Amino acid sequence: MKCPSCGHLDTKVIDSRESADGGSIRRRRECLECGKRFTTYEYVEQVPLMVVKRDGQRQLFDRKKIINGLIKACEKRPIMDKVEEVALEVERAVQKKFDRDVASKEIGEMIMEKLANLDEVAYVRFASVYRQFKDVNQFMKELKVILDKEK
Ligand SMILES: [Zn+2]
Question: Do 82 and 119 touch, CB atoms closer than 8 A?
Fold first, then answer.
């Protein structure tokens, strides 16, 4: 760490203290050249997760957007009270799997996977909006897969 006073690169740490929540470490340092004392802080880097949309636009990851999408898909369905929980699970999974960028497609697939296990109507609703079915046939095909599963 460079001395802010003389620019010398060698310093010694004379005191090191972790913050009460353990989120940072405060270090008291002394310049070996001029004796100037200064403080540095060490934190875990918080890299904001960016969502890359189909058109290449990047947006800050926002759990509220997942919740909004889920609310629409789950309207009048018995899993309405699980919306927040699903959104949180998806957020955790995304953060675990991706470092910096995540394609909106990946998030959509994760949500669909969760909905498919929870409520098929909500799943089809979400998929129809999310996958932007180009025509009715594609949508019917998706529906048929689900209906076949129920047989
Ligand atoms: Zn110095």
Answer: no
